[in-house]
Amino acid sequence: MASQTMDKYTLPAGKSKHEFSVPHVKGLRVCVSTKNKTFMQRYTFAGKKHCVVLGRYPDMDLIEAISKVQANDQKIAQGINPNQSKEEGHSQDVLFRHFTQNIYLPAVKPHKKSYSDDESRIRIHLIPVLGKKKLSDITSAELSQLLANKQQEEKLSNATVNRIRALLSSIFNLAIDHDLILINPVSRVKKFKENNQIERYLTEGELKRLVDVLTQPSQFDIQNLRIVSIVKFLLLTGVRKREAMDIQWSDVNLATGEWLLKQNKSGKARRISLSKDALGILQRLPKIGTYIFANPLTQKPYADIRKTFEKIMKAADIDQIRIHDLRHNFASLAVNSGESLYVVQRLLGHASPQTTQRYAHLQQSTLRDASEKIAHVISSQAT
């Protein structure tokens, strides 16, 4: 009978997790995921809402879960919190600080390219607020407030706040995999709206001034020529910052200019044919280690080049531009030179043509100019 009842709790279409209330048993829930079914109890103690994991089906059946709820209700009536009466060290007592530092970060370090970003965001943005809290006690409302404070008080951009939100979601998903919690509280935290359609392109005058600074950096008191080379390379190739900074000598055929980009955002390797100017930048650099654009002091890739980048842009009198905008500028120049969106997609390494479609308005401008030129030729024939 209990087994037949449990068969009714199945995932709704399109969902990966869902929580069901059990009729006539106050507080008892069946949490269904793609992996398992778990019993839990929701209750209020001393004015605060709590959630306690009872067991996993079929190790625990419905009758046992109901019996456990009734036993917990008796404890609550006696002024005992079932969630705090468990022995020390139980999964319900795992702190956010302990989980992130001792479980999450070691788990993602071997394979996550953004590991260093995760580590710094956890240390700077999350530990100070959530570090001493139990994973099971952290609520959606608390996380919403944390992210709102990051945006409003600390003035982080919506995109940066969303990266922190995504990190939190990954952390709690791993906690679910470790049977420490049942529901990811981030699932009820709304994303901040990002305007990804705003791209910054260099004007003809800005591009000329930037090339002047990159050609003669010493005249502008810019001493780090390695980072100057990185900026030149980004300008000429349109690749992502990390793709350029992590390039190794073994990845490039310096004779043919063919670059095998092994690690990229899409997760698929791709081959890039470097222009003569881009290849010339690499050929002129001295080999000081494995990485082409290595920091001479560490022989490792630079962690951050923003300080020198901002100095370069200030010398060129260019405002409100990010490193990633050099990629947008590369796409703009390609489209306005008459290249098709398919070619631009291949140049930028976009996995989907929809991503490249954001540059379609530039192509329409070019086509409109061409149409006007044709119309002018025709109208000029009129007598």
Q: How would you describe what is shown here?
A:
This protein is an alpha+beta fold. The chain folds into three domains: about 1-85, 2-Layer Sandwich (Double Stranded RNA Binding Domain), CATH 3.30.160.390; about 90-190, Tyrosine recombinase, N-terminal domain (DNA polymerase, domain 1, Orthogonal Bundle), CATH 1.10.150.130; about 205-370, Intergrase catalytic core (hpI Integrase, Chain A, Orthogonal Bundle), CATH 1.10.443.10. About 45% of the residues lie in helices and about 10% in strands. The chain contains 15 helices and seven strands. It has helices at about 1-5, 60-75, 95-110, 115-130, 140-150, 160-175, 205-215, 225-235, 240-245, 275-285, 305-315, 325-335, 340-350, 355, 360-380, and strands at about 15-20, 30-35, 35-45, 50-55, 250-255, 260, 270-275.
Quick summary:
The chain is built from 15 helices and seven strands.
How are the SSEs ordered, and which strands pair?
Elements: H1 2-6, E1 17-21, E2 28-33, E3 37-45, E4 48-57, H2 62-77, H3 96-108, H4 115-130, H5 140-152, H6 158-177, H7 204-215, H8 225-237, H9 241-245, E5 252-253, E6 258-261, E7 270-273, H10 276-284, H11 306-315, H12 325-336, H13 341-348, H14 353-356, H15 360-379
Antiparallel strand pairs: 1-2, 2-3, 3-4, 5-6, 6-7
